[in-house]
Amino acid sequence: MTRAVVFAYHNVGVRSLRVLLAQGIRIDLVVTHEDNPDENIWFGSVAQVCRDCDIPYITPADPNVPEVEARIAALAPDFVFSFYYRHMLKAPILAAPSRGAFNLHGSLLPQYRGRVPVNWAIIHGETETGVTLHVMNIKPDNGAIVDQLAVPILPDDTAHDVFEKVAVAGELCLHRALPRLVAGTATFTPQDLSQGGYFGGRKLEDGRIDWRQSAQQLHDLVRAVTHPYPGAFSDTPRGRLTLWRTRRIDAVPSTSDGGRVTLWAADDKLWLRCADGGLLRVLDATLDGKPLKPDALSAPLEFES
């Protein structure tokens, strides 16, 4: 029987664990994370899957410590897999499996190596992303590719929408590639790292709106950081404005000043003219912590671009 140690978290971790079990992989240990009480936990629980399926699991703050490394080495797994686990794995863990260590990454490598690849792809206006199963080494997301599967990013897709597609694509990609890994017939294609870049994590402050952006750039930011993320925001004299949902449009009711970045209400709707003259309809927003409705915006809000 093929045996594995699995590092997993999030919906991709849940789905991927189920693929391994369905294909008869014996999982001797799962390493996952304790949920952070300060984080919006909107995704499935790897720990719950382990409890349901009687799989031993641990939640170390740092997996790269001698006691965890020794435990994994003693298990002598055939494979180590990482499915949306948040820590880099160092050389002793990567060397433990006899048949290799593999990671499932949420982009079409070598594009968008690093953190939160779905969010970055939307911010940059991509129309496609996907998942890549690749060899793990001590450098992040640069090992040889085993398999990939693409998914579309539609014009109004949010990060949550795309992540749901990526989670399913990860399941399909792993399900397709796993028999070849087990049989020893998988092919390994080196990455051309010149064709992609590395991106870091994002913080709440990265959602602050730059009003010099075009309408398309602002729309992409809004959908990349909307729920369950903290949102795209700007501080105004009336309180913090957070844009949660927008849509590109061609024409809106006119205002008195056509040259400024302006948010205004007309026809019982909210409209936003951006620095490039492009137009957005604001479908969901809050101002000073309260839902912003058209009848509550008594005077337009203007922004420096």
UniProtKB/TrEMBL annotation:
Residues 30-177 form the Formyl transferase N-terminal domain. Pfam families: Formyl_trans_C (PF02911), Formyl_trans_N (PF00551). InterPro entries: Formyl_trans_C (IPR005793), Formyl_transf_N (IPR002376), Formyl_transf_N_sf (IPR036477), Formyl_transferase-like_C_sf (IPR011034). Residues 204-290 form the Formyl transferase C-terminal domain. It comes from the Bacteria. Signal peptide: none annotated. PANTHER family: METHIONYL-TRNA FORMYLTRANSFERASE (PTHR11138), METHIONYL-TRNA FORMYLTRANSFERASE, MITOCHONDRIAL (PTHR11138:SF5). This is Formyltransferase.
